[in-house]
Amino acid sequence: MSQTKKYLLIFILAVIALTPLGLIAEGPAWGEWSAEEIQAMLGYVPQSIENTKPLIAAIIPDYEISGVNGIFSSWISALLGAALVFAVMAVIKKSAKRAS
Amino acid sequence: MHIPDGFISPLTYIPATVAAIPLLIVAFKKTKEAISDESFAFLSSLTAFSFVVMMFNIPIPGGTSGHAIGAAILAILFGPWVAAFCISLTLFIQAFIFGDGGLSVFAINSLAMGFAASFSAFYLHKLLKNRVNNGIVLFLAGWSSIVFASVVVAVALGIQPLLGVDSAGHPIYFPFGLEVTIPAVVGSHMLFFGVVEGFATMLVMRFLEKIMSQSTHKEVLG
Questions:
Q1: Does residue B74 sit within a domain?
Q2: What's the total number of domains in chain A?
Q3: Does the beta-carbon distance from B56 to A26 stay under 8 Å?
């Protein structure tokens, strides 16, 4: 592995290691409230927010694996996300090579 | 800044999807051209960085939180199209696997955090580089990327009360209008998350410049 690649790998692993820090924030992003939070805020829940279900249920909703400690959940989620990015990019690289 | 399912009327997300598809096709083609054995490590690492950096939720006054995107770094290094594709890939994984951002509104999130962020960062950087101190240019590119993204999100959310009201007079979709969403979403990104994105862009670019100069050094030295 070249020196540059090694540094990049250390960089991304270091950032992944720090992801539990993201758990410190308790409030959601502005606007990204749950139906319960909107109910508490307005006294009603807009129909579409109440009734719309996701098209496909998420495998790991909110980066929380049920039964797994929050810190490990965020590590696993971050590693999985990063691995998926590398996998998709590798497929694109392969298809680009084949095309050329 | 990831809009969930149910918050947005089909009158908004269908046109947004129609607009985003050709843009994503172009962005995909440009990414395919840009990807090589040499660029692969950088492209993948920085896209993975974008995925991971969005998990760092930073609390701000008022009980809400937000995060950086990482689009500016990709846009400066690889151009706005490639950056927009990489961020959109991140957003797709977040929506599909982690339920972060709705799949039905994927196009809006992609237009905001992918395209608006990448293009604003790229052109601001192009306009200011070599005219202003490099650190300041990088900060501003990062800052503007997330602020432009927040404008798209604020407008998409803020027009929803106009697009549907039920028999009780309650909005069907996102309940707050532009007079609330613009200050809340754009304001918080100008004051807080833009600053975080600006510093993140500066720091990561500095780090990348350092490792790139070392690697060329090595190659030169054999």
A1: yes
A2: 1
A3: no
